Structures are given as structure tokens and as C-alpha cells.
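Reopening this one. Same input as before:
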Amino acid sequence: MKKISRRNFLLASGVVTIGAALAACGGSSSTSAAASSAPASSAAASDAPASAEGKVLNIWCWNDEFQSRFNDYYPEVKEIAADKSTTTLKDGTLVKWTINANENNNYQNKLDEALLSQDSAADDDKIDIFLIEADYALKYVDSDYVLDVKADIGLTDSDLAGQYQYTKDIVTVDGSQRGTTWQATPGLFAYRRSIAKDVLGTDDPTEVQAHLSDWDKFNDVAAQASAKGYKMLSGFDDAYRTFSNNVAAPWVDGTTVTVDENIMKWVEQTKEYTDKGYNNKSSLWDSQWAADQGPTGKVFGFFYSTWGINFTLLGNSLETPVAEGGKEEVGNGIYGDYAVCEGPQPYYWGGTWICGAAGSDNIEIIRDVMQKLTCDEAIMKQITLDTQDYTNNEKAMEEIAGSDYKSDFLGGQNHIALFAEAAKKIDMSNAGPYDQGLNESFQTAFKDYFTGNVDEDTAKANFETAIKEKYPELTDVVWPA
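Same output, byte for byte:
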């Protein structure tokens, strides 16, 4: 696969149109900012690092998750500013954090503009590390703006040997690995123990899984839950990843978009759930969806990957948030009333990768950060024990899976054991650079169908229109027969 040139990177990021004029163009789910300040030179940022290490390490991300992992677990941290905008390392290096929220493609738009100016930026202003997500990883790793973690940064095969293979595959182009991560993100189905007991007569994860082990059984439980006054899922999007991660081929081949049959099964199920009242008509991240996970919620369960358990679900379960003085303990909301099982299909959701930016003058620090925060078995294990996150070291995770580790939030369950099995089934072979944009456009187009505002044919036509506006280079859409 050929690396993306400056011009093609602009096209992929939505900064210029096919006509090559610098203009605002759809980048993901919103209009992208024009990069009129981008340098005219067609040369990519230099891959050659400066010989002397810089005194400022610039890290770009979209929330504070990696910042907290860095500040809490990177051994070289000496001091953290009160507002967390900077971190000082023991050798005096100042880490500057640039955090741009992900909404409406804001993070990618600003990152793209900065990368396009990387070769003309002052050394202390150059991006050294930036974070990417699975849905758009290939856009960046298949470009000239990212360093090879082995050839350029210096990690070794031995360093990376303990990591899950899929976490390396997704950021590898033509044998060149161009990112690394502290996470692995297999998915499970998180359910309310009290609701499972009422509907199924048991809250035991093994027994609940027997009732949910395929989609037909899952749908049967949805009907039983509805009869008891519960919703099976919160909204339209909850099951989407479970279907979209089990497609037969990538979204795009050449200039043709192919809608997989499994994606249409999601449409069929979600329309049925909406019409029958099996969901609450919410969307991911909206207030209804969050409330459905809390003390007043009446939803049987939620599809969540590893980060979702500790990063989102736990917080939503509390009646009194930690920020308001609440504690993460049984008695605060429905803390302790969740458990997890495998669900009807294996899937993954998300994941965050650390990339070294071409042109950085901090290669030694980048290597040390990557080695300590993604390769060090002891650190990986401690992150999981402290945070319930699932980290990217197979040996460490197997040790916890086989131990007496228990999650109080999950009613004493060792969920790491289930995640360890699910992680072995992750297949990233059908991932592609258009995944985020196409997935988002598809879900948006079909919400109007689910709610009865348009018929299915109109929803299909709206999807085709949306993606051709977003990606003019994609010329055809093929639907299942």
C-alpha cells in the first residue's frame, strides 16, 4: 500500500476538494476548516529527527484519558501543573498538552492543519506525539506524517512481543508499524443483574450468556424484557458495532462502497426494536442514553468494550457523581448491579494509538514513553488493577484472568477473564480508512427510517448522497441483493 502524499492526505482529511482548491470540505460529520495557511511546498514533513533532543514534548489528543495514564504511570513524571496543561519530566523536559474535543471532527481538523505545517514550525512547536482512534487510524498511519515505531523510533520486536497482534496490525502498512497502544478493546455485553433476575430468573453471567448466545436468543430476551416493562437496549446505535465488526469485507474496494449484509441485519433488528418499543430511541452519548445506564434506567444492557466499563458505564451508574462528593461504592446508585457476558457475537470498539510525528526532535523520549506505557508488563498490569481498563499485554491480562481478581462494580465478577477470551477473537482485517465517516453517515441516514420519517429506500438514497458529498472519490454504492 502506498503511503498517502501531502495532496492525498489533504483529500483524506477533507481539507481540499478533488479540484485541488484549498476550501472547506466535509471531513467526518461536519464541515472541515480550510487549511489556507498550509505551506505550498509539496514535500512531506521530514522523517529525519533532529540530532539534539528538544526541551518541549508536544502531545495532541482529544480527551484526558491518555493524559491521565501518562501522568499516573510514566515513571519519568516529576511535576504536573495545577491546570494539567503541562507536565514536567525528571530531566526538565516540559510536556505540553493540546486537547481538542472530538465532536464534529474538531480534533482531526485541527490535527490535520498542524501536521501540514509541521515542517515549517519551530522545533518547540512541532507535534511530537499524537493520538489516533481505530476508526480513522489508517488515514494517518498510511501517510508521511507518522514515524515507524521500530525503524525510526527504536522499539524492538522484543519490546512489542507481548502485545496483542491485532493492535499492531491495525497500524501497520507494508510491514511498517506506525503506532502502538496501551489498550486492547474487546467488547462484551454489560447487563443489569437485577433486571436479568427479574426477566430470566438469574443474574449469573454463564447462565445469562446461555440466553444471549446468538441473535435469535437475544431477540427472544428482548421480547421477555418488554413484557416485564424493560427495554432491551437504550437506542438505535447500541448494537451497531457488534454487527459492523462482523462484516465479510471492508467498506471500500477501489472507488466502490459495498454495504455488507450484516450491516443490513442491524437495520432490520433496530427497526423492529424501535417499532416494538424494545429500545428508548436514544443515540450514543446523548442524555437519554447516559440516564438509561443510571439508577432510574430500565434498560437490560449495553454493548461496551473495555474502556466503556470504567470510563463511562461506572460513572453513569452513580447517583452522586464523584465530582459532587460521591464514592465509587455499593450504595451509590446502581454500583455493583452490572455484570458482563460475551453476548451474541465477538466484536471490538475503539482503542487509542500513540503515534510519533515525523519531524519531532524528541525521538528518545517518544521511544521511552512508548516502551514504558505500551510494552512494560508490570505497568500494563498495574493500570488494569487500578482502573479496570484492559491493557495491551497478553501475559499480564492472562495472569489477572486466572487470579482471584474481582470488580466490585461488576458485583464481584472477574471481567478480565471474559475480555481475555474475547481479545483472541478480534479481527481487524476488514478495517479501512473510510470506516469512521461511512459508519457515522450510515447510522445518521437510517435514524430517520427507524423513527418513521422516511422509508428504507429514501434512507439508502440519503446515505449515498451523504457519502458522495463527504468523499467525492467514491463513485458507486452496492447494496445486498
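So the earlier flakiness isn't reproducible anymore. For the record, Residues 268 and 450 are 9 Å apart (CA to CA).
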